[in-house]
Design goal:
This protein has about 140 residues and is α+β, with helices and mostly antiparallel strands. The protein contains seven helices and four strands; from the N terminus they run βααβααβααβα. The chain binds adenosine-5'-triphosphate and magnesium ion.
Amino acid sequence: MHTTRTLAILKPDCVRRSLSGEVLRQIENAGFKICAIHMQQLTRTGAEAFYAIHKDRPFFNDLVDYMTSGPCIPMVLEKQDAVGAFRILIGATDPQDADEGTIRKLYADSKSENIVHGSDSPENAQIEIAYFFGESGIPTDIK
Ligand code: ATP
Ligand code: MG
């Protein structure tokens, strides 16, 4: 088995509520290695591009408002089956539906403000990692 990568974001509500440290603790406790991380505030254009797949959904404008409402913390995580493992760790989109012990169940308030993003497929993980971090500058062998 080999390690793979996913893109995670601690969303603006996570940063605003001073939960970044706790959520990073959970991520590392679950065996993920953080191999790139920074803080940035998404522009409207940037958030619209990142969530372009949802552009026709009724919640799109609110989603862009939320994702641009303050700084967020995108990061690249490594683990075996990183995409699937991270989706399990964060839980369902709506925290009310999320399993006990998942990050969204523990910390999120609502379906629209749900603390954390995780890529939904290895293909999208690659696109999202390139979007935030480019192809360079990520260490290749995190132990
Ligand atoms: P993410 O892509 O942020 O990891 P997800 O993959 O669990 O979340 P998506 O269906 O991709 O869920 O939705 C993207 C984001 O849009 C959600 O995380 C949430 O913030 C918002 N969202 C999704 N569905 C709704 C909804 N019905 N009402 C309000 N906001 C929603
Ligand atoms: Mg998604």
